[in-house]
Amino acid sequence: MWENMVFLLIGLSSFKLVTDSYTNKSDNETVRTVMNDLDIFFNYAFLAEMTIKLCSVGFIMDENSYLRDEWNILDFFIVTSSMADMALTNVDAPWIKVIRILRALRPLRFITHNVAMRLLVNALIKSLGGIINVLFVVITVYLLFAILAGSLYSGKFFYCSIDPFILHT
User: Fold this and answer.
1) What stretches in the chain show pLDDT beneath 50?
2) Which residues, at least 6 apart from 130, have a Cβ–Cβ distance to it below 8 Å?
3) Same domain, yes or no: 21 and 33
């Protein structure tokens, strides 16, 4: 039940992030206020979820503590950057925009809570070396065919001999 509630919060937060680009441009002040209040609600909900996890498994000292898992480190980073963004809402500095962009990482929290997605992402990361090797082979084959086509067809495709500056009727 706890995981389902967290999944629901992540889904609603992701939906809110999707609608942000439309509601931020809205002239309606109540819509912007509601969206801002929703953002604050989601920040505190995720902070509460992280705090409960921290209390139940510990912060970093024990073997199975919160920050010993890579996915929880990502979760911790997302929550703390969201809280920093919320704390610095009235500050108008250029570097604050980077922190605000980090809110787009919230849907990644779904990976931290779904074991099947974790397995899939870990498999993709481990296969990255093989994928890069295949990419180099494909690029080499494309390069070979580009050189072949350049040498075979060089000068064979004649350009148009009509003067472009003369109007033809």
Assistant:
1) none
2) none
3) yes
